Amino acid sequence: MSGFDKVVANYDEAMQGLADNMTVIAGGFGLCGIPEGLIAKIKAMGVKGLTVVSNNCGVDGFGLGILLEDKQIKKMVSSYVGENALFEKQLLNGELEVELTPQGTLAEKMRAGGAGIPAFYTATGYGTPVGEGKEVKEFNGRPYIMEKSITGDFAIVKAWKADRYGNCIYRHTAQNFNPIAATAGKITVVEVEEIVEPGELDPAHIHTPGIYVDRVIKGAFEKRIERKVLAKEER
């Protein structure tokens, strides 16, 4: 195998270099498409003072929620936080800083960061607390606020398949935030269900090119359901 092989043998190698006070961008939506093993490794490492950027913070006892248990997260940048009681407690106690961001704006912050764009204008949030203190410009008669892009020291991502060069395919709704998160990390680590040899993936089906990926690790996933709702049985 050539020097382009990005597969690592264990989680120690996968998260090597992560330290206190870094920014981590995490893919996933709720509990769908989250890098479960990489999150567990961050917990085991015991790093503190993290700024975590993700759509949400998991749930109590699973996903990013486990990083709250030892107060490893200093600041959370997210768009939805309603499924986590410990999150709410730490926020109300002043132990956790939270930057709530509209979901589309958060996605664009990651995408812009990965594209090397430092800031952009959006109408979303104008005239609300989201827009307070931010630069406003008018385009075609409509006011827009300036939002700064986001990059992270690490991006942790979950993919369905990847080849040894880091080319990734996501499955169904696990595409959510993962492709844009993958572009926005100085070091991007992808946890996958299956690793294949170069040339086995159809180039037309690749969602994240390997140029964005630094490390690939094969994981095992519980794929827990965040909220199960069953239809009542008709009598």
TrEMBL record:
InterPro entries named in the record: 3-oxoacid_CoA-transf_A (IPR012792), CoA_trans_fam_I (IPR004165), CoA_transf_BS (IPR004163), NagB/RpiA_transferase-like (IPR037171)
Gene3D superfamilies in the record: Glutaconate Coenzyme A-transferase
Keywords: Transferase
GO MF term list: CoA-transferase activity
Top-rank lineage group of the source organism: Bacteria
PANTHER family for the chain: ACETATE COA-TRANSFERASE SUBUNIT ALPHA, KETOACID-COENZYME A TRANSFERASE
Family that this chain belongs to: Belongs to the 3-oxoacid CoA-transferase subunit A family.
Protein name: CoA transferase subunit A
Species whose genome carries this gene: Alteromonas pelagimontana
